[in-house]
Amino acid sequence: MLTSLKTILRNRELRNKLVFTIFIISVFRLLAHIPLPGVDLEAFRQLFQQSEFLNLLNLFSGGALSNFSIVALGLNPYINASIVLQLLMMIFPALEKMAKEDRDGQRKIGQYTRLLTVPLALVQSIGIYFLLRNQGIISFSSWAKLSLMCLTLTTGSILLIWLGELINNHGVGNGISVIIFAGIVSGMSVSFIQTLLVQTGQDLINLVLFLVIAVAIIVGIIVVNEAQRIVPIQYAQRIRGRKIYGMQLTHLPLKLNQAGVMPIIFALSLLLLPNMAANFLSNAPLGWVSRAAQATASMLNNQLIYGFLYFLLVVGFTYFYTAVQFNPQEIAENLQKQGGFIPGIRPGRATTRFLNNIVTRITLVGAVFLGLVAILPMLIPRFTGITTFTMGGTGILIVVSVIVETSKQLESMLVMRDYDGFLK
Q1: Which residues contact 141 (CB under 8 A, 6 or more apart)?
Q2: pLDDT-flagged residues of the chain (< 50)
């Protein structure tokens, strides 16, 4: 690792990319600490500790929402727009074809995503305003100040997208992921230091157990993200002119976790909607509506029921998202057209069934692991008694994934520089 770091620092181009990335992260962290006027930050932070919904938004805003800064929305509208575009691709085949065509098609999909981000950012900023006004946290109510607040939050979200694009073009790593990573790490470091300071003077055994669990979780995330099921592929002989091609052996890698962090986001969003609706309707004029809302809120406030539903939804959405990303029938048809086949398996429907069975089995392992990562904040206090570390499993999963992907990109850059030097 140190050797690779020295090699990167010696290379002027890579060194400039790293410096540029660090500069953009510094700009983002500076913007995250410029608060909007007219907000009672102390009351807002108290509300923040009681709301899972705000914690989810804060995770993808890179920690900017907890300060209610000018970039408080973060990249949430952009992520929501990406999810909407992915769902539309399932409904409209023309969009899916455009995304798979070439760079021009992908560029158009990216442009549609950015355009959709603007109205979503406006809607989210209006929703946050009414949420905070009902809690007495926002002191103004004029349309002029509301418009200015919504315009500022929307502009801040678009600004973060632009910073992410700058990292993509001139820096290292995926810009959107790097910005989210920077915010999560900043909050995680504070929470981790608080945990060390509190537990060091109280219970060293629980602290050691907590550190062991943390290391095991990080190792598990890396192993699951990198794990693959290798399916051998063989191509038949083909005669072109006087030359014989074929009998090539290759493989099809099937990742254990093809869905990434998206099932956790879907599941948490689905659980938060009935909770918010129940809190809103708990004082409804109709008696049966109020009683049903209170019963729903009481059920979701039960940690055991909430954790069980959360786990099941993550497992279900993992299968759903994997089915969207991986199409065994399409792969089997492509293999048959190219003269490829899986040894011992007939081409066509038999290959489709074989791939579908494999994906179903390995997805179960990945889905259960994602479910355990999702309910991690509920499990750690029960096993260690530590309640000061508030970072959830989703944040840890994102941090580890970004580090792994960025390190792979740096390694590929080093390999490219080595080949360039050899050719010259």
Answers
A1: 133
A2: 420-424
